[in-house]
Amino acid sequence: MAFSGGTFSRLYSWASDQSNGIKIRADRMDDEFNGMATGLSTCLLKDGSQTASARIPFAAGIKMGGQSIQLDPANSSAITAGTNNIIIVSAGGADQVKFTDGTIEPATDNDIDLGTASKEFKNAFFDGTVTTDALAVSGAVDFDGNVQLDGTLTVGVDDTGYDVKFFGATASAHLLWDASADKLLTVGGALIDIVKDKLMIGGTAVTTTAAELNVLDGVTAGTVAASKGVVVDANKDIASFRNVTLTGELDAGSLDVSGDADIDGTTNLDAVDIDGNVQLDGTLTVGVDDTGYDVKLFGATASAHLLWDASADKLLTAGGALIDIVKDKLMIGGTAVTTTAAELNILDGVTSTTAELNLVDAVARGKIIYGNASGASALLSPGGANSVLTSDGTDISWAAPAGGGKILQVVEATTTTEVSTTSSSYVDAGLTGSITPSATSSKILVLISLSVNAAGGAAVSENKIVRTIGATATDKYVFSQICGPENDKGNYFLSVLDSPSSTSACVYKVQGFLTDQSGTVQYQRNDGADIARSVITLMEVGA
């Protein structure tokens, strides 16, 4: 074909035909002109009467030479390539949007809407700053990052407000502005903690602590309440004061004290003569460090007194005075002496040395004071577990108990609860016992009397003893039991000596299943008239 894919190819060369002696022929002329007609009939026409039927791939793009693309000439809608690399989109005879390098902007300020009330954009993604004169949000707003407001944040309008919540890191804890109540509330354990700046009242910072403020809670003027502040009444009077403690001077026109006087500061008196009781609620100090004074406490008997002798640094009794400790114990090195006077008097006349007496100081749990091979007093340390104290007739020592194989404890468990099975897998027979060995070297003798019956025909069962320590189960003994014909009931006895090597609780139980025949295996069958019983006995045997 002379015209294909936009390329016109000549079928014949007239100059070559002349050279080759080929005359001009009608068929060759028709072929050439038919090719031209085909090419012209498939071309786009400038009057638009013949349009493209498929996509036209422009290899070098569409170059308009600075002209517009008229999308709707009747309504003046076009895309125009302006100067300075600006692309202008116009509609309705007016420029609407301009595209420049790095910018999309409206042609006129405050003129173009993005979306409409009925046709909204779905999502918007910005990697920079969004600047707007106003923001109206009809739905929820979800911010996953920081929000910075450089102006005033207003929620609601005057007389119509909305709740505002500020959640914390603890579940349900939040600060709530309750618009309906006109209150700022804390919910779910949330707190308002004023640290850096102080609470301001009328422009003045409140420096009082919360504990100090709470002292005024429930205060009544002119009265005194425990642990509360005091406010004078209209006459500047306060009633019901109990005790007044002064750390400075008391300057009063007159002083009338009908009760006790408690002075925490220094009282300088030329002489003191007290005819009544003296109560000191603080420390009584006599002298200063390195300079002391004698203190005498006289009793009811002439010359009998307790003397703190400052020159000797000793507390002495004189004139028959005694120190009698009754309520509290004598303390030595912070430890109370619980020994009675009668027990201490046993030592009266004892000739023990200081070293021998100090053995008492070294006595601890499990130790014994004894006479060693040299005849001197010494401490015997505790022996090993389960050791016994023995004597060879002269000296004593710790030794292992003589002999072995002793029964240390016995545990027995029984059951009359019927268990039936036709399962081909192990099930619990209902017989279980538990024992806790006293030593890892002990063995456990397991004795079992197991009640087994065949029901509904002959049956053969396989049974086993299972030991469980903690979460570990171990098969210790497996045996088969032929129950025989129907209602062949009886108790079968078996035993096993186990070495659990543990001091943890050891649980032993029996499991079984039907291995042959068509009947049912029954453990502890209960037929109403005869109640069968199974027994497990566990004995700890010492090594």
List keywords for this structure.
543 residues, mainly beta, six-stranded antiparallel sheet, single chain, 32% strand, Jelly Rolls, 31 strands, five-stranded antiparallel sheet
Could you provide a short overview of the structure?
The chain has five helices and 31 strands. The relative contact order is 0.06. It has helices at about 15-20, 25-40, 210-215, 340-345, 355-360; strands at about 5, 5-10, 70, 75-80, 85-90, 95-100, 105, 165, 175-180, 185, 200, 205, 295-300, 305-310, 315-320, 330, 335, 370, 375-380, 390, 395-400, 405-415, 420, 425-435, 445-455, 460-470, 470-485, 490-500, 505-515, 520-525, 535-540.
Any overview of this molecule?
With 543 residues, the chain is mainly beta. Among the domains are: 3-41, no CATH class; 68-106, no CATH class; 407-541, Jelly Rolls (Sandwich), CATH 2.60.120. It is built from five helices and 31 strands. The chain has helices at residues 14-19, 26-41, 210-214, 341-345, 354-362; strands at 3-4, 7-8, 68-72, 77-81, 87-91, 94-100, 103-106, 164-167, 174-178, 183-187, 199-201, 204-206, 295-298, 305-309, 314-318, 330-332, 335-337, 368-371, 377-380, 388-391, 396-399, 407-415, 419-421, 427-435, 443-455, 459-469, 472-484, 490-498, 506-516, 520-523, 534-541. Strands 22, 23, 25, 28, 30 and 31 form a six-stranded antiparallel beta sheet that branches. Strands 3-4-5-6-7 form a five-stranded antiparallel beta sheet, with no helix packed on it. The longest helix is centred in the first third of the chain and has 16 residues, at 26-41. The radius of gyration is 56 Å and the shape is flat. The mean pLDDT is 81.
